Amino acid sequence: MTIIQLPDVGVTMALVSTLQASLPDFGRIVDQHGHPATALRQLGLVHWENGRFDTAARTFAAALSLAPEDPDLWRDLASVYSASDRDELALTAIRKSLELDPLNAQSWQTLASVGDRLDDTEMAEDAYRRTIALNPEAPAAHLGLGLLLFRKKHYEEALAALRVSVALDPVNGVAHYALGHLSFIANDFAGCARAFDEAVRLALPLDPLTRQKRARALTFQAMIEGRVHEALQNYNVIAGEDREDLDIITRDAFSVLSATGHLEVAATIGRMRLAEKPHDPVRRYLLDAVLGQSMNAAPTDYIETYFDQFAPQFDSKLTDTLQYNAPRQMAQRLAAHRASFRHMLDLGCGTGLAAAELQPLGSALTGVDLSAGMLAEADKRGGYTELVKAEAVAYLAGTDNRFDLIFAADSLIYFGDLGPLMRAAAGALVPGGLFALSVELDSGDGVTLQPSGRFAHSLNHLKATTSDFVILEIIESNIRLEAGRPVPGLYVLLERR
Length: 497
Ligand SMILES: C[S@@+](CC[C@H](N)C(=O)[O-])C[C@H]1O[C@@H](n2cnc3c(N)ncnc32)[C@H](O)[C@@H]1O
Hints:
Elements: H1 9-22, H2 24-33, H3 36-49, H4 53-66, H5 71-83, H6 87-100, H7 105-117, H8 121-134, H9 139-151, H10 155-168, H11 173-185, H12 189-201, H13 208-224, H14 228-239, H15 246-259, H16 263-276, H17 281-290, H18 300-321, H19 326-337, E1 343-347, H20 355-358, E2 364-369, H21 372-381, E3 386-389, H22 392-398, E4 403-408, H23 419-428, E5 429-441, E6 447-449, E7 455-457, H24 459-464, E8 469-482, E9 485-496
Helix pairs in contact: 1-2, 2-3, 3-4, 4-5, 5-6, 6-7, 7-8, 7-9, 8-9, 9-10, 10-11, 11-12, 12-13, 13-14, 15-16, 16-17, 17-18, 18-21, 22-23
């Protein structure tokens, strides 16, 4: 830990004499309090307020040489160190202050901001929480905690913290700004636009991306209120020079509104979009999904078109925005059962996120996918001995390979009835071979095509279609986010009988 060297008392007393001689106010304060430490603190505060951080720090250190057990002085010293980017020294000083007075909310708040600046999230979060426990009415602590949780992508908790902060201190533009972004993530579009407008009213200018978000929020909200055509007509005026392509706005409105249960509005938008491009397989299938049409699997032309378009952004969108890490979770579970395979198949391999997870378990890895775009990304990433463009069931039924592992992360969600795929998988596995898979969980009895275009499978359906297998493990877990909310799913490990 960084050490803070305080000046000798003799040096400080010489300074006090000089100050008494040159600054009458200083002399008066010394006389009033009978102790020069208080006068030095006052002088330090004046230097601090005027931005003379180095002089302020030297003055507080001088005061501390006379009163080393004063927790407020240590906190002041920490604050000026922090203000002049000397965060390690600030940390030492604020820890000393808390050692002397562990129940001071302001000192915990200072530790939290120092922790934030040092990127020590754990320390900062703990310190914000302690500040709030000691003083629940500290808006800055709720704001700091909210922003930190926002960065950690704990959106619900972040939103709650920011709402408290804004209620306690309604004139902080930064809090409204962050509240606007979090409200958008929580699909509270009216709240989002209100918060951004309040930030502007409090003289916080919005950056272009935030202005775009505000225009989207107002448009989506008008759509939710049933004014789809009016919302689209007004969009260009609301967005002004920040406007995005209307096709992107309707595409995203369709996906956000269907994911948040506004199915009628989503269907209206979906019909409009299909009328513009009647042969687009993505528009047709997603409208069918929103309308609740029944089908056995997502059509192959949808899969190819959708994933070819999505491929370049897939990794960042899935792993970052949607917090998807099924390949890692599944590979870890798998390795706990068996750690070595002769020939592995990554079914619906996509961009190859599973390759790095599977490599330690064996050297022969075949990847199969329908989308050429996704396979191209997998090829760039590497790790596969072979990449095959094929439909999954057709591949399993036709291949001469006999695998001892089939790994299907987030790809069975494009199949309704899993029966045919399970039978084909059993045929392509050696006896005793393993099948690791994930599904999104349907709380009912069967299979549901969700408005997202992905199927959800119930535990009963899974059990009914796996008679060729012994179920080794079923683990419930959130698979990813959908419109900011966790999607419940299952990680399943089967053994071929
Ligand atoms: C959500 S991605 C998951 C990719 C990868 N497994 C991962 O975990 O990142 C689903 C992948 O399954 C592929 N897919 C969907 N249905 C398929 C089918 N019937 N046959 C082959 N691949 C399919 C898609 O092309 C897409 O690459």
